[in-house]
Structure formats: C-alpha cells, structure tokens
Amino acid sequence: MMTPFKRLHLVRTLYRSSQIGESSSYLLGSCKSYSSALSNGSEGNFRSFHSHLLKGQDGFPFAGVKSLTLRSTMAAELSIFMNNRRMLSTQVKASAQARQVGQQISLSSPGFIYEPYEPRDKIPFWKRWFTRSGLRRTKNDIILELKSAYAIAKLRKTGYSKNQFYNEAANMYKEINTLIAKGDKRTLRKAVTENMFSALKNEIKQRETAWSRVYWEMVEPVVKIRTLRARLIGVDRKDLNKTFIQLTLEILAKQKFEAYDSKGSVVAGDKSKEVLVRDIWVFEKSMFHAGATWRLCGRISPKASQLSP
C-alpha cells in the first residue's frame, strides 16, 4: 500500500501531466486570418485560412480505441497504459491503396485525421481529483498525452529531431500557402495527401470565380510552432511497424494578404498590414518506407473562442 505522502505526490504529478494539453489557447485580440479569403474568395470573412476543409470529416471512418478502467488507487494505472502498446496506437482497415501487396509498400495516405485535436476546457483541481466525472476526465487526459508520447518515441527511433522538423514544417507552411495563392495545383499535389489535394483544388477553383489573383506573404520567421498531438495509424494488424504518423502542429505566423479583381483593383485585404494568424495543420508521414516525406494531410479550424479575448 502507498503511504498518504506518496499518494499525494503521485496525484500532483498526474495533475501536472494532465494540464499539458490545457494550455493551447492564445489570445490574438480581434485579429482574424486573411487566409480563408485566400482559399475561398469570401471578402467579408477573414477567419482561419483553413476553416472549411474538415466540415465533412465526420463522415470518415475514425478508428476506435479500447477503453481502459482506472482502479481505485492511482499507483498502478500508468503501468497499464505504458505496457499496453496497442492502446497507444490504432489499427485501421486501410484502403486498397494503403495495403501491402507482395513486396511492394504503398505510400498512400490513410485518408483521414485520427482523433482530430480539440482543446480541453480547464476544470478545477477539486473537481478533477475528487469527483467521478473529474477522475474520468483525468484518465482520458492521461491517455491522450500517453498516446502522443508513445508516437513521438517511435518517431525518434527513425532519427526525428523536433527542431529540424519545425524548420521543415515552417518551410512547408510557407510553400503550400504560396502555391495556393498562385493556384499552382501541379506543384501543390506533391506536398499534400490525395484527399487534401482534392479539397485544395476545389477551394482554389471557388476562389478564382471571385478574384482574378491574390497576394500572400509570410513574414519570417514564424512567431511560434508547437506540437499539439501525435498519433500512429496502423495499416497491418499483423505488423505494428506498418504505421503512418500524424503530427498536429499549431503555427503562429504574421501574414500579409491582398486580393484583386480582373482590372487589378484591390477588392480585399491590405498587403501593407501584418496580421497574426493561428493555424492548426496536420502533417503525415509513412513510418515503414525509408524514402517517405512529410505531407500536409489536414487542417483544423481553431474555435472562434480561441481567436478573440
């Protein structure tokens, strides 16, 4: 049995770990992104660049995860989570393109975001640890964090460096936004997954019906990048190494935007002004092919409550 002192120490440790995911909100004042206008041509709506893509995502077959039960004492729970490796990754029924055929390994994307990131509301300490609903919430928070930790640990074995990846992600963020602004679909196809390309192609087409051209610029360097979530998606139940990894990043960057009509007149935006934009992008990579590269597989629109004080 644990002494009261040790139990209190464990409670404090778990409480701190559960708060990791609760500090994701940023107060950006009344600043709203010009980037949605870059994609869809709506002059009056300058919310996130990527607010439309995932509206229909509820139809995707999200993978299920087995539930775990916490015991009355909190001493043994973490060992359950850490020893059950299958809990920390998900196995899904892959599409025909994503399955292994003979000795050939496909690099096709699973085609969906597994467990899309959502900020968790803060709850009081007493409610978290002294009510049934609070304990359930704490259990779920810990599971979410352990899944991310497990995915990152697997990724590090392949030579992953956080700083190096953040630099690559910032470059991809700039490149993809620039390609969207130019309407360069041919080059864009190489930087995003198949489903993502289809969505972006439709957005560009919709925008071009309203504006003749647009100007977009990112003020370098980016203000901040951080990882919000990491997830593994298995495509072969018999081999847990056949996985894709998805990293959800929060990107804060200053941007400039301006849109023009067919006569070259400015109809939206102002490229002389810098706007602080908060975007949530999901990058994906195959973990079972040495030549695989990171691609954008999805964008998550920040909630309106996170864009204003």
Automatic annotation (TrEMBL):
SUPFAM superfamilies, per database record: NTF2-like
Transmembrane segments annotated in the record for this chain: none
Record keywords: Mitochondrion, Ribonucleoprotein, Ribosomal protein, Transit peptide
Gene3D superfamilies per record: 3.10.450.240
Matching Pfam families: Tim44
Entry's Gene Ontology cellular component terms: mitochondrion; ribonucleoprotein complex; ribosome
Domain (Tim44-like) ranges: 146-301
Top-level taxonomic group: Eukaryota
InterPro entries: mtLSU_mL45, NTF2-like_dom_sf, Tim44-like_dom
Subcellular location: Mitochondrion
PANTHER family the UniProt entry points to: 39S RIBOSOMAL PROTEIN L45, MITOCHONDRIAL, LARGE RIBOSOMAL SUBUNIT PROTEIN ML45
Family designation: Belongs to the mitochondrion-specific ribosomal protein mL45 family.
Protein name listed in UniProt: Large ribosomal subunit protein mL45
Organism: Glycine soja
Phylogenetic classification of the source organism: Eukaryota, Viridiplantae, Streptophyta, Embryophyta, Tracheophyta
